[in-house]
Amino acid sequence: MRIASDHVRVSVPATSGNLGPGFDSLGMALGLRDELEVRAIASTSIEMEIEGEGAETLPRDESHLVVQAIRAALDHVGASQTGLAIRAINRIPHGRGLGSSAAAVVAGITAARAMIAEPEALDRAEALRLATVFEGHPDNAAPAIYGGATVAWTEGRRPHAAALEVGESIETAVLVPAVTLPTKEARAVLPPDVPHSHAAFNAGRAALLVHALAGRPELLLDATEDKLHQNYRADVLGPAMVLMRHLREQGLAAVISGAGPSVLVMGDSLEAAGLGSGMPESIQGIGDQQWRAFHTVGRVAGATGEPVGV
What we know:
Blueprint: E1 7-17, E2 26-41, E3 46-52, H1 65-77, E4 83-90, H2 100-115, H3 124-135, H4 141-146, E5 149-155, E6 158-164, E7 171-176, H5 183-188, H6 196-213, H7 220-223, H8 234-237, H9 239-249, E8 253-256, E9 263-267, E10 292-297, E11 304-307
Parallel strand pairs: 3-4
Antiparallel strand pairs: 1-2, 1-11, 2-4, 2-5, 5-6, 7-9, 7-10, 8-9
Helix pairs in contact: 1-2, 2-3
């Protein structure tokens, strides 16, 4: 397959996995996006410019996740490899449970899709499959690709995802601390087995959450209760658990975003509740942290990619 566009632009959203009871299955796209410009150049080199998150720490060579994903996607469709000039504007905080690694992988795959002559060869199902090879599980990659809220699962080794209805009244606010938490550390404290009663509890709450997201925000507090992962992670989550419990005591549907340590709140009238974008005064200092908030109203689009100058 040939490369038809040598200059493409990509946008990909942050995501939150689990959403409380939907451990490793439910996810949602958030209104915070990374942007990427990719040029195919007549050499074997990598030229990378990074602004924002990770500008001082991320690699600028073949080991960068975006580059690896572009390479894997081009190989998958039989397209020729080229040199790459990449400009990345990173807005998704790293190490905060907001799917930054999934966003990088999906951005690379989306860039390759926009470059090739037959983009249908990298449709959303194939993009999810390739992204899951990198990520190990599809719960962040799915909403990054499909947008909105998704449920993801695997059949054998093949991942699948389905879009869920998100009511127009549903808002999100993701609250981001200064501290980070590696996903591996958060997963390491989970037990190998859980009580049957806890599994049954979460199955019921996950089903209720699907219903609540479709436009019943008054059900979200009950629907986001969890017994499978958040309490087990309490010691490593620290400030996030303090804030989550504080908000839930106020009647807000707060959960740990992915593996943490950010906190996701779902509901309606969140700005009126003091959770608008910025540095909400009502939560500053909780857990000895300063919290940044990113507020979103309505469904967030998944990854987009398009040729530049066509």
